[in-house]
């Protein structure tokens, strides 16, 4: 192959995309495994250490699902081309991108270990800290070891992939697949997520109605009608109250939430829910604030599946 006709652009494309997907996959796998550990080793201080919201778990799971197969395919293609001699193992493009990738990986590892020690020094659970650290170190050794192997292996006169490396590949595949499957135990299925998101929207809208009713009634020492609205239409008719057009209706059924006055200062809001939200629930914490006074406490809208009514009292 003549030097002037060698396709360096192809090398750059394959290696750059391969190393980029490797980074995305390893970072996603790192956080997925830690999220699974958090699920089975709970901390009494939930805000201590590495705690991921469910949206972040979804993002990292999607990263592994998309980036890892692309990396595997590109890696297989590059190895095949290197073995056949169609790609140069001593290409400057390959060496530069490989070393740059190793620098980025090392920086990410340092950042992760710093984060872990910050959580530990802040009082995170020791067992969880140790497991998190082992996960980070294991992924670091795997990624850096693979990079170093790739650099040295195809530079040898007769490169040959042995049984040890095949075992390593299968272990990585199994861990990646298990982390994705395990993530569903944290976030639930797409149908479960949709049901929970609908319930979250219902509570947000009930929150808006509660605030509008309190504003209609008036705060202590402030302006207001000093009486509860007879129905929800009075909230819309009041020019001093802003409530979104869809804020009075159920997001799924498009029917209005039930509103019933029970006394001079008390009323009920009713809605039908698809999931359970309780003190012991693993659902996302969604709360509704009492808008009686600035220093008032939060009121949880715990509910079961089906129709639930919430008694509320204005100040």
Structure overview:
Pfam families: DUF5671. The chain crosses the membrane at residues 12-36, 56-76, 96-114, 126-146, 167-187. Keywords: Membrane, Transmembrane, Transmembrane helix. With 315 residues, the chain is mainly alpha-helical. The chain has two domains: 3-188, no CATH class; 191-313, no CATH class. The chain is built from seven helices and five strands, in the order H-H-H-H-H-H-H-E-E-E-E-E. It has helices spanning 8-40, 54-84, 92-121, 126-153, 163-187, 190-217, 233-237, and strands spanning 258-261, 266-273, 287-289, 298-300, 306-313. A three-stranded antiparallel sheet has the order 1-2-5, covered by helices on one side. The chain has a two-stranded antiparallel ribbon with strand order 3-4. The radius of gyration is 28 Å and the shape is elongated. The model is unreliable at 282-298 (pLDDT under 50).
